[in-house]
Every structure is written in structure tokens, then in C-alpha cells.
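Folded chain entry —
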Amino acid sequence: MAEKEFKDRVNKVWSKVKKISKEAYEKSKEYAIIAELKIKQNSLEKNKASLFKEMGEIVFDLIQEEEENIEKKEQILSKYRDIEDINEKINEVMLEIKRVKEEYNLKQEEIEKIEIKEEDEDDDEELEQDKDKEKE
């Protein structure tokens, strides 16, 4: 009888382990999808910031040259259209995040916890830590 009870307990434990493993796998898959979308969004945001910088430099140069009707210059309009395209793509990514959130019944707090660290940020953080160590 003791052997049967032992086997039953082992089977129960094994069933729980399998269930928890499956849930963990599913949750990590959901988080990976969100992380991938956030990476895409961050990349688009960086491209947009770069375009704004380029546009600002062009506007500055045109003002220095005392150009008129700057807003009608093709250089400016081209950057504007590129930024609008990126805004559209960002909105699409945000809608996809919302869709995934609803599909997998994720809470907003869960999505916010998924942090995406860019390589540059990691490098900056390491530099700051190195500087702090040198001061000591």
C-alpha cells in the first residue's frame, strides 16, 4: 500500500511540475512577443528622433541662409513625410501590443515590467560604474 501511495504522490507532484512548466513556458512566450514589439517600437522612436534632428539642422541652415517658405522646401517635406510614416508604424506596433495583451489576457503592469535595455544604455551604465570605481 505504501508503494501505491508513494507512486500517487510522485504522479501528483509530477503533474504539478508539468503544469507549472507549461504555464512558465507560455508566459515566457507571451513576454517574448511583447519584448520583440517593444524593441521594434524603440527602434522606430530612435529613427524618428534622428529625423527630427536632421530636420532641425536643415531648418537651422535654411534660416541662416535667409530662405523663405522653409516649410515648403522638399528637404523639409521629405523628412516630415518620413516622420509621419514612422508615426504610423509606431501606432501599428502599439495596436499589436494591445492585441497581444488582450489575446493573452495580460495586465498593463505585466507589460510595463517588460523592460528593453538597449546596448547603448548598457554601455553607458557600465561607463558610469567604471567612473564611480575610479573615484573610490
